Description:
This protein is 33% helix and 10% strand. The protein is an alpha+beta fold.
Amino acid sequence: MEDGLLGRLRELQVRFDPSGAVEGDVEGAEFRLAMTLRDCTLYLRVPSSGGGAVEAKLGDMDLKSAAKAGYWRQVEERLVREDWYAAEERDGKAVETVCVLGRRA
């Protein structure tokens, strides 16, 4: 797996929910943690001069509620159904992507 923040995020998402939210155990604590890791915010600080390091931080890391497990499953089903994870447009054409999170572990 790639080094860095996005690679680590993807690794943890897969570890805590290897079956995916559509098929996984939505009542389990690991599912809630995986959903927390899927629904976080990535903040980037990019130097305006073009030089220097890019800083990255994660936010919105509140543990998802077990009471909303059904909601999170519905969200994941919609994302899968609408090809958000497949890197394809609606016409079936592949879209070039370099997103670490879209790669299979």
